[in-house]
């Protein structure tokens, strides 16, 4: 299993609030390189599949509604120790608990509208990346 890639989404709150550029700037300055990226949006069906692991959680329906509320930016990022370093860069899920200077501390609105997603393992980074990108995708 590769250990040098992670998957991120800039979520609808951060895109709508005009934070895409600042967030990408912070990610790149932290040493990540962007291997794939697209501005897109999630259907209810696709959001449900992406968050299937949270299906039984009380916040699942609201999460799907939020994630389909506007455009997102999906990206595959590369850096040594990518998964762990990216989770440090974004901070805790709840922005009230996110360390000063982290992306969620600076740009998130709430535990739900928390600006960015970051994969929690190498295995999920590969699954989530291939959810949005084909290895051989070219235009
Ligand atoms: P993320 O870790 O990217 O993926 C799962 C998402 O579910 C998480 O970000 C939050 O946006 C959301 N989430 C997690 N816990 C809660 C919660 N207690 N209440 C509302 N949303 C949550």
TrEMBL record:
Keyword Nucleotide-binding carried by entry: yes
Record-listed ATP binding positions: 11, 59, 87, 93, 104, 114
Major location (coarse): cytoplasm
Any Pfam family the entry gives: NDK
GO cellular component, one term: cytoplasm
Cellular location(s): Cytoplasm
Single Gene Ontology BP annotation: CTP biosynthetic process
EC number(s) reported in the record: 2.7.4.6
Name the record gives this protein: Nucleoside diphosphate kinase
């Amino acid at each position: 299993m590769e250990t040098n890639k992670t998957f991120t989404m800039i979520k609808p709150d951060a895109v709508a609030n005009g934070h895409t550029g600042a967030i990408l700037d912070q990610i790149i300055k932290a040493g990540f390189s962007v291997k794939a990226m697209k501005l897109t949006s999630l259907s209810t069906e696709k959001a449900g599949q992406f968050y299937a692991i949270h299906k039984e959680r009380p916040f699942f329906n609201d999460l799907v509604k939020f994630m389909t509320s506007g455009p997102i930016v999906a990206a595959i990022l590369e850096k040594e120790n990518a998964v762990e370093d990216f989770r440090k860069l974004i901070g805790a899920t709840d922005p009230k608990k996110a360390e000063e200077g982290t992306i969620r501390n600076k740009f998130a609105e709430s535990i739900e509208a928390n600006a960015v997603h970051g994969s929690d393992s190498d295995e999920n980074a590969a699954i989530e990346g291939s959810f949005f990108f084909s290895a051989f995708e070219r235009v």
